[in-house]
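Sequence and fold:
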Amino acid sequence: MLAVVALSCAREKTPALQTGDLIFVGYAADSSAKEGSMDEAIVSATGNLEVGGAAVNMVHVAIVEVDSIGVWIIDATRSRGVDRYPLDTFLLNNSGRRGNVVFSVMRMKDNSLGDEWIARAKAFIGEPYDNLFLPDNGAMYCSELVRESFRSASGEYLLEDKPMNFKGPDGEFPKFWIELFKDSGMEIPQGVRGTNPQDMSHSTRLCYPGITIH
């Protein structure tokens, strides 16, 4: 059930979630996102990742915080904006996605700045979700939150951005994007630099810690 999309981390006897881990949410090969949904539009634009011979597409990413009370998630969603809440709530919310949902835990190869990344992510709590996928506009989408939070000690980005693609395999924009940006009164920001969970899951800075989430 867990997608392995990067090199394995140092082997642990009892793998456990750590502060600074990332949980990617995707669709397995034998399922599909709801027709006309944002998930379907993301899947169409970002393509599939081959994992063990099966196609998986990551559509969401969240940051893990572990403290003395429990395990928490910090992420950006359309329903909550940027928020912090229990892992169990996150899993329950995402299990409602249509089809066979895949949860993939990834970890930075150097996770020593995890507490700093969490502190930076918490500073964004309360910001609205960025439906327009634009940089520096006072709102955040999920992978943007991760990129802005995960920086080096000197403030440099650790996860790359690239020109964004909103077009499907046929070269056309999915209906969801056309209607969303039409209602917003702006052009689809094709080519604007940004991030998405699928590309982020490919980062060579990430590794697989051997944790399975059901």
In short: The mean pLDDT is 85. The longest strand covers residues 54-66. The two ends are 7 Å apart (CA to CA). The CA atoms of residues 36 and 176 lie 6 Å apart.
